[in-house]
Amino acid sequence: MLNHRHDLMYGDIKLFSGTSCEPLSQKIADYLGVPLCGRTITQFPNENLFVQLKSSVRGQDCYVIQTTSRPVHRNLMELLILIQTLRLDSAARITAVIPYLCYARSDKKDQPRVPITARLIADFLEVAGADRYMMVDVHAGQIQGFFSIPGDALTAYHKMIKYLTTLKPKMQDPVVVSTDLGFAKRARNIAAKLDIPLAFIEKRRVANDSKAEALAIIGDVKNKDVILVDDEIDTGGSMVNAINLVTKMGAKDVYVNFVHSVFSNDAAQRLVATDVKEFITTDTIPIPEASIKLFGNRLTILSISDLLGEVIARTNRGISVGAMFNE
Ligand code: R5P
């Protein structure tokens, strides 16, 4: 962590956590060497939420850490209400730290009479009083354009690449495979950093019901170890199809990398039933203990706490974040 001190334009760091990812928030607090600030969050019998801060934040630099995974609407409302509470208590600056942004897949009108819900979420955050945002591996880069406040769209893939680099010497002729064309550019960057070839799966969604079909592979995986990459696993449909396809095409060991473990329905069980050698993910979304047990030693969870902690430290001091990644 940085230890040189500049003038703090927005006061000291005040970290607040919603209830969605308290262990991650605590790790961020530990990295920064500051405590999580006290707050109460109560749900009334009518399901309305009530928030109260335990101490004043007047003139301070506040960060609200809340991931917007399941229960999505409760977690989202907690985040919005926490932000408004800080605003009303005269915080100098409020940053919404959102490891996983809900509704990010609703980012365009790709069929008639549909919403762009990611835009609505960006508006909610700004109306609540956020001055900045921090997000990790948001589904599509252009979502940044839905915000008129500044922010940091971060990626956990730097961390994953570092980890994969340690595995690479044990791999046989590895190739990065993107599970769909939407992730192709990011997959290309990952392959370039690992200095290995790249292949793509052409996946076509057949309906709005989260069923996907992996159709074809562009590139060569025969007799190679495959590193599958994606931003998230939701129902597991895309990834299981991808695993089956590369296996059918003659891949050897398969390593599955994804940032967000959304794990809807029986995704964990479906993944565990495959022959994948290792699943590599992060803690942007807490994974239930039961699922962790299911995966056993095939699951590696890389924490993004130091990434978020460092970006918070730099934001507070007004120091470049790009410099962390050599721009
Ligand atoms: C979609 O474009 C994303 O990158 C993921 O591939 C998708 O969210 C995974 O969803 P599921 O696990 O339900 O197939």
Kindly list the characteristics that best describe this protein:
327 residues; Rossmann fold; globular; binds ribose-5-phosphate
CA-to-CA gap between the ends? Answer: 18 Å
Radius of gyration: 20 Å
Assess the beta-strand content as a share of residues. Answer: 15-25%
Give the number of helices: 9
Mean pLDDT equals 95
**H/E order of the elements?**
EHEEEHEHEEHEHEEEHEHEHEH
Residue stretches low in confidence (pLDDT < 50, at least 5 long) are none
Q: What's the number of domains? A: 2
Give me the side-by-side strand order of the main sheet: 10-9-8-11-12-13-14
Query: How does the helix and strand content classify structurally?
Result: alpha/beta
CATH architectural grouping of the largest domain: 3-Layer(aba) Sandwich
Described by the principal axes of the CA atoms, the overall outline is globular
Count the strands?
Answer: 14
* CATH topology (fold) name of the largest domain: Rossmann fold
CATH class of the largest domain: Alpha Beta
Summarize it.
By secondary structure, the protein is α/β, with parallel strands linked by helices. It is about 30% helix and about 25% strand.
